[in-house]
Amino acid sequence: MQNTVLKIDHVTHYFGGLRAVSDFNMELPEGAIWGLIGPNGAGKTTIFNLITGVYIPTKGKIYFRQERKFKKKSKDKNEQKGKKDSEGKKEQKEERFYMEDITRYKPHTIVSKGIARTFQNLRIFPNLTVLDNIRIAEHFRVKYGLYDAVMRNKKFKEEEEKIKEEAIKLLKLFNLHSRTYSLAKGLPYGELRRLEIARALATHPKLLLLDEPAAGMNPKETQELMDMILWIRKEFNLTIFLIEHHMKFVMGICEHIKVMDFGETIAEGTPQEVSNNPRVIEAYLGRKKYA
Amino acid sequence: MKAKETVQDKKIPLFKKRDFQLLVGTVIFWAIFYTLTKFGMMNLYWMHIINVSLIYVILTTSLNLINGFSGQFSIGHMGFAAVGAYTSATLTTIVWNLPSHGVGPFSLFILSVILGGIAAAFIGFLIGLPTLRLRGDYLAIVTLAFGEIIRVVINSINFVGGPRGIPGIPRFSSFTVIVIFTFLSVIVLRNIIYSSIGRALLSIREDEVASELVGVHTTYYKVLGFTVGAFFAGIGGALLAHLIQYINPLQFGFMATIYVLIMVYIGGVGSLSGSIVAAIGITFLSEGLRLGLDKLDQVTPFHVGPEWRMVIFSVLLVATMLYKTNGLMGDMEFKVLIPEEEDENAKHGA
Ligand SMILES: Nc1ncnc2c1ncn2[C@@H]1O[C@H](COP(=O)(O)OP(=O)(O)OP(=O)(O)O)[C@@H](O)[C@H]1O
Ligand SMILES: [Mg+2]
Description:
heterodimer, A: 291 residues, alpha/beta, 12 helices, 10 strands, 43% helix, globular, B: 350 residues, binds adenosine-5'-triphosphate
């Protein structure tokens, strides 16, 4: 059995009288790539906004898998041993995790718990450099305070160097290294998309939410993006949940797909199952193709 | 493996270090005017204007932290200066009744300035906490109201002279004291800006939602930035009180804040260097205009009083906005104000 990373439990959300999400349920397994599709206005982005704390659901709860804090000290040792002894320790390992109710948490708290996201309409910091875009996402892990910053002491300098090194490493991975000191607003669209994903990863997430990552990309870029998503999942040990209109993309990359329409979950399953589901064809593919 | 590319400050000779250059520059500036005054070669009136302009550097840079760097819109900055001024002047003049000389009284004066800053910061915190939680322009409305309320409150407190103000404040704010405080204020603000805290503030200005969603506790940092800004406004007010030796509630009204706001926006939103240049430049321009307008008043049949200065500044502001949208300096800094480590990352002017 796989561990569940994110559990969405009977979530309903209203905007005034509009029911944007209706009784949404999901148990997202660790390491998976799942997709969320549906016509415009189906409520997909709203699901992301609910997970990340931008909105608090009208009804229902959202849980995220967490490691118990008080055992953290022995964690590293255990993990090393665990790898050596392999399966023997597995039961103990299970106990270290629990599902934390994150329903009412503020967005920045949820980020620090390990959920990062990108946005449907790019939201980078335009007048800051590429480096600063990344460093801001590392901000909550910085260990110095106001006093250290004012004094520019050793602690400050060490932390700053660490943060910068890490940021540059990330930029190299995403082939944005040559842009380190450029203002973000000067970057071409494709690079901005990459920067946004890199910035999300700078928060060290366990779960990455991608809202229409392939929007505005040509077929070649889309293919590259697919490869990249598969690669970052492995490289950063991620679970990924993504929204995408691009059917080839979703079908090609997701192991499991949820389909929404008017806030309702109308179908879910493997790409095969979903694409053969008559309701999906009618509600989504049909309308999209023939409307 | 390649050697580390980062600039280690150990390798830079001392005289090339920017902080050192900044310090030396400040000392030279101080030494020149100090000597000139000592030997009676400096017009005391203009010396006074220099002092005032340096205090405005503190007021302007600290307002820029709030309005420029973190993208909030406070229009009650002089209200905080009033808190600082009244706190320190009440202590030195009314409570302790200090003479204007001696080491003991001087230390108490320094203490009173710090306490003035802390009092202003505390009030700033109280105002910022509920207000900055909300997005939008609530801060403008609340700080505007605060600026007026603080005046009314001071007006009604007999202990601090009510509308008559506090006269006879000992003149502790010497040129030397003001230079030191200005230098330290600018350095502290600079250090905050070029840190993770400063970057958090900038990200809030750029896109508050995105900032929150990459892990920045936006409310906390908005309140922090606002509180720090209020602290330095309080320091500025306290120094001003002990320079002009007389304070009353009217000095800290809305127009006074507008004056500082104009300095921030003409100098450049998000540029400490711009604030420094504008604070000094506009203080001098203002004095020049006052003298000029007085002359004009005498030679022309109609009345052209000093109140016309505000009109001229407004025109100046509009002109700046039209021709240099982001103020004189934009968000560029003098190189000497940028820490070496941030060289490539920061924008600098000539
Ligand atoms: N803040 C809001 N206030 C009011 N209504 C909203 C708000 N955000 C979204 N909605 C409405 O909720 C519904 C779902 O919107 P959502 O953005 O989740 O759709 P979506 O599935 O992401 O669509 P798209 O494919 O166009 O991105 C829409 O009808 C939208 O108009
Ligand atoms: Mg959407």
